[in-house]
Design goal:
Length: 584
């Protein structure tokens, strides 16, 4: 059996991402899945190592402008076999775009954008493709998260004001049974000089103990959550988990001592102590942290990335950021297809593109850009043909398409037709596509993995086309006319073929089973990889040309040949077909 060198490009999604995090996570998960097959094929142990890819040779007399070291790759190989002389090798490289658009927007800008896009009553082109059950779940999640964030911030303010008002009362009267009233407190906050009339150095010190104790308690809780999330990785490094647990315990002791001092020592000599009100500052800090974290991660980090990337206004600075992101991802994929292997062998026989969350939208656009360059003779056809699959998971493609359509409320019919035609000639939903030799014009196999409980993900249903791989974009009008002629009386029921294979997690719809929001769980899920199952990402990256070349399925299909209906279109009831056409 001929061994092959496989390239894998992983495109990460939203929120700030550390460099190499998803690259290493993908490689380690792939190695773990390959090791599960060891008993069946009697191979050795699969491991992941970091290697430097060779950079393009510098042209004399000096390196070209902008020449710099390339990012490292993570290689998955058999222990003792670092090349594919005696075994397959899988090189994983990330398209790391995260730093390009971070801190370029803020929550006020994001909220303004959301209000001006999601609820556009005059918009007539944007359509959201999803079942009513999925739509309700996603809306409930978004609105629920917003309500929790706002409620947590309001609660934090209320607790902090009442706790502070109680301290002021005790400091002024010596007893906790009286109150200065919130109106008086607002006056004090408006004129801080008045605080000196109530607070002595002793009371200020106790107030500081309560605030610092509450802060250290929140940091201890944050560290505990981090340990729980990283428990699998930390279990392999006992020293790490021991030191972290010790540090958490130290923080808990410090916070307990400070809060105890604040709660038991009298604010004024012979007067009352804060008592349980000292915990008010800890509760206020906890509530504020919850609200802030939701607003920052969900509003700014998540929707901020979407706001920037879905900007099509070339007069906006966000458009320039979008182009930088797209250029980087396209160059990473294109570089992988043309790259010489790190061990000096020929370029990768196959390249697979894996994309998560918003990364699926970016990767889709990058593949389209590479296709355009190939058609214009600016990108080598042999290099492009090495791209064999496009694996999306937790994909935001259906949702970002809605935002793109809103950004183009009067888009022309020709643009819609061209876009769908281009998707059709590029992608295929048949698993058999993976068995064809490079250059067979069978398209790039596209599969989409998604959880119902993932509020970002959807089944891909609006990406449809009457064109198939092997067609030319210049024949779009001719082929659409041939479809209309072939369907005759059923023309109103004809809808383009779906160009993506959807794989939905078979689990039941129960928020109490598994993680409530599994958006980041795909790479650690055996279902996603498939393993010993019939199909999964592992089978895709391990695919190779069939021993006996299958008969071409899409290649050179120009007309509606006998038995080729499923290639180009499907018939639906007229009302359902109209519903789809309104959303494509």
């Amino acid at each position: 059996m001929a061994f092959q060198h496989v390239g894998i490009v992983i495109v990460h999604g939203v929120i700030p991402q550390p460099r190499y995090q998803i690259q290493d996570q993908t490689a380690q998960a792939l190695a773990a899945e390959l090791n599960k097959l060891r008993a069946k094929d009697a191979t050795g142990k699969w491991v992941a190592d970091v290697l430097n890819p060779p950079s393009p040779p510098a042209k004399p007399p000096s390196p070209p402008a902008g020449y710099e070291a390339r990012t490292t790759i993570t290689r998955v190989h058999l222990l003792g076999e670092s090349s594919y002389v005696a075994s397959d090798v899988y090189d994983v490289m990330e398209a790391y775009w995260s730093p390009l658009d971070k801190n370029k927007t803020n929550w006020r800008s994001v909220l303004s954008w959301l209000l001006s896009t999601i609820f556009v009553p005059a918009n007539t082109t944007a359509r959201y493709m999803a079942s009513w059950q999925k739509t309700i779940f996603d809306l409930t999640y978004v609105l629920g998260a917003a309500a929790i964030a706002v409620g947590a911030l309001v609660l934090a303010l209320w607790i902090a004001l009442h706790s502070f008002e109680k301290i002021i009362s005790i400091a002024g009267t010596g007893t906790s049974k009286t109150s200065v009233g919130l109106s008086a407190l607002w006056g004090i906050l408006g004129n801080p000089i008045q605080i000196g009339q109530f607070l002595s150095l002793n009371s200020i010190g106790l107030l500081a103990c309560a605030c610092v104790g509450g802060f250290t308690l929140m940091e201890a809780l944050r560290a505990m959550i981090s340990v729980v999330r990283q428990r699998v990785a930390l279990s392999k490094i006992p020293v790490q988990i021991t030191s972290r647990v010790f540090f958490i315990l130290l923080l808990l002791v410090i916070s307990a001592v400070l809060l105890w001092l604040a709660a038991t020592l009298p604010i004024v000599p012979g007067g009352s102590s804060m008592g349980w009100w000292a915990l008010g500052f800890a509760l206020a800090a906890l509530s504020f942290e919850i609200g802030r974290a939701i607003l920052e991660s969900f509003i700014t980090d998540f929707f901020g990335d979407v706001q920037i990337y879905t900007t099509h206004d070339e007069n906006s600075e966000f458009y320039a950021l979008r182009e930088k992101i797209l250029d980087l991802v396209a160059q990473t994929i294109g570089g992988m297809t043309a790259a010489t292997a790190a061990d000096g062998h020929s370029p990768y026989q196959r390249v697979h593109v894996l994309a998560h969350s918003l990364g699926s939208t970016i990767a889709m656009d990058a593949l389209m850009r590479l296709y355009d360059l190939k058609e214009q003779g600016l990108y080598d056809s042999a290099d492009f043909s090495r791209i064999r699959s496009f694996v999306t998971f937790g994909s935001s493609l259906e949702k970002t398409k809605y935002f793109f359509d809103i950004a183009n409320p009067s888009q022309s019919l020709s643009y819609v037709q061209w876009r769908n035609d281009a998707y059709g000639v590029l992608f295929a939903d048949r698993r058999e596509t993976l068995e064809y030799a490079n250059g067979a014009n069978e398209g790039i196999f596209w599969v989409n993995f998604w959880y119902f409980k993932d509020p970002v993900a959807n089944a891909i249903d609006s990406y449809r086309s009457f064109l198939v791989p092997g067609d030319s974009l210049g024949q779009g009008a001719e082929i659409r006319a041939s479809v209309q002629q072939a369907t005759k009386g059923d023309a109103d029921d004809a809808v383009g073929r779906i160009i993506c294979l959807n794989e939905r997690h078979p689990g039941i719809i129960n928020p109490f089973v598994g993680r409530f929001i599994p958006h980041g769980d795909y790479l650690t899920d055996d279902w996603f990889w498939g393993g010993s199952e019939d199909f999964g990402t592992l089978k895709i990256v391990m695919s190779r040309d069939a021993a006996v070349a299958p008969a071409p399925h899409f290649a050179n299909v120009r007309g509606l040949l006998p038995g080729s209906k499923a290639m180009r279109y499907e018939l639906m009831p007229a009302d359902e077909a109209k519903w789809h056409r309104d959303r494509i």
